[in-house]
Amino acid sequence: MIQWMYNLAMWGFECAIRSVAPFHPKARLAIAGRANLLHRLHEWRAQHQGSLIWFHCASLGEFEQGRNLIEEIRQQHPQHRLLLTFFSPSGYEIRKNYGHVDGVFYLPFDRFKTMKATVQALEPSAVCIVKYEYWVNWYKALQEAGVPIFLVSAKLRHNQRFFGRLGWWWQKTLRRVNHFFVQDDETMRLLQSVGIESVTQTGDTRFDRVHTIRQNAPSLEAIATWCGQAPVLVVGSAWKPEASLALALGQQHRDWKIILVPHEVDSAEMQRQSNEISGAVLYSQLTPGTTEGNILLVNATGILSAIYQYANVVVIGGGFGKGIHNTLEAATWGKYILFGPRYEKFAEAVALIEQDAATVCATASDMAKAITTAMTELSTTRLRGQKGAMLVEKSIGATKRIMQHTELQSILKK
Prior knowledge:
With about 425 residues, the protein is α/β, with parallel strands linked by helices. Helix content is about 50%, strand content about 15%. It contains 20 helices and 14 strands. The strands form two sheets. The chain has a seven-stranded parallel beta sheet with strand order 3-2-1-4-5-6-7, sandwiched between helices. The chain is globular, with a radius of gyration of 23 Å. The mean pLDDT is about 95.
């Protein structure tokens, strides 16, 4: 009965996305990207023979979390074909040309017949899923085909469906996993509490990733010149509350340099802001010698992690909405971080607060006060930021621990 209800929900979910696709850009991409998907996967597999390791990431954040593992396997075991799938257009559209794998596709919607056909077409030697995405029919199809499933940097919480009234049914999907590589003690305890013992606490691969990003980050000379010797506030992955606050502070503190990087680039809106807001400059119009203005509107993607190197203080967006974005990309540079109250689901944010490397602000007004204090007491701010860098440094190594796991190694060495 529950399985039937789940299948009905999956059918309804797919129908809903198809119905809104003409009016919703992301839904339209999700549907278009899955057109003739099974046929395209068949063709791709025919052209890429041999052992296949299949990686899956829900979206871009999970991809970055698993990226070091993908590239490590590519380097150490080049005999395997590597496939990467995404559920969300936010991941696929940005990484569809990612060069360290042999193919990038969308994951089909979770209908058992479709998933079974997909698994049969691909015949993977193993599947590595980053952090989460527990699609019931997909896991069932993989298990029935004898394909090992590995969860990488898995994170579970006590209030998730696996541990509620119908937990016994959802746990069937968890039990199909061959091994969990988990981030923390809580996830290990939760899995063990329901009788799952194939668990290793390896830590979070995101620490490895941000460490690598910092090592390879480019110098952005135009931004460095524009910042000069002024105190710099970077507002990264900004939603409307953080963006509005940044623009207001830019008007109040002309001696600061404020770099605003939105969660999603709206070119028309940013052009309007640059025309109407005193001191605002578009990144696309920045030249190597530009020093004018005190608010830089970054109308480009893919450079936020490098921009953080120029900050004195960092605000991470999303905390006044659904939840904060990546804090570790700023922490690895030793930057003091501020964010709104929606952070509880992110263990690294909790750890940064405990280390006094980050501060949570209940309201935008509180955040404005905290920013002002941090920007005027830079020596203290610098010391607090260094604690975050130390946290990242001592937390790296998850990728290496996963690579050393016996069951995974036995597959990779074939």
